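ok posting inputs for the glutamine job
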Amino acid sequence: MNERSITILQLYPRDMNIYGDNGNVLVLKKRLEWHGFTPIVVEYNPGDPFPDDIDIVVGGGGQDSGQGKIQDDLLRIGPTLQNLAQAGTPMLVICGLYQLFGHFFETQDGTRIEGISIFDAETYGKSERLIGNIVTHSEEFGNIVGYENHSGQTFLRGDTKPLAMVKTGAGNNTLDKHEGARKYNVIGSYLHGSLLPKNPKIADWMIAEAAKRKYGEFTPRNIDDHIAKAARRIAMKRPR
Ligand code: GLN
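and the output
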């Protein structure tokens, strides 16, 4: 029997988990099983001790108020997350947490919610909300489909690259067609939906990186993705 385990840390499920972002954890759990691993999910909320031996980090979006609630705690664990990121731990952070993995999110009323600067990125709240279905494209993952709803507009700097370029929708902001961010093995994205059920390539990439780091290799198993493919097709046909 294969007893290789992979531990997923879910950041702030209580305050940062909207539009089905929890689905990203469910997909990683299920696909880890399908690839022959035993998944362990550890929920992390403000004030919890930060667990050892984390292989994957996942976090979701939240209202500005949710971001405010977790800010102090995030700044406290920021150096630990920074070390994990620099060591190559695969991470996926959506919308509200994506913004706080950059330098800051300045809300519309001028309040600055400080981030942990894993991404060289700044986010500014604007009066226009960017809402609707979105399709982007990346060389590595092909078309990425999801749903966005944010007032913050994010601008990437320095060596932080976009995850993808926008085909339909807004993405990081209304100006440069960038969507999301990529640095080390950390992915930030505005795409809810949730993201991984309709974009299993990203899930498998995270699993492969985690397995290679922990066990030195990854041999994917064949997974029947016809339902995910149908969901992608239908989502891509939906109007904005
Ligand atoms: N509160 C942030 C914004 O509006 C993030 C929203 C979200 O996570 N969906 O930009």
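notes: The pocket of glutamine is lined by residues 18, 61-64, 67, 95-96, 149-152 (CB under 6 Å). The domain at 5-237 is CATH 3.40.50.880 (Rossmann fold).
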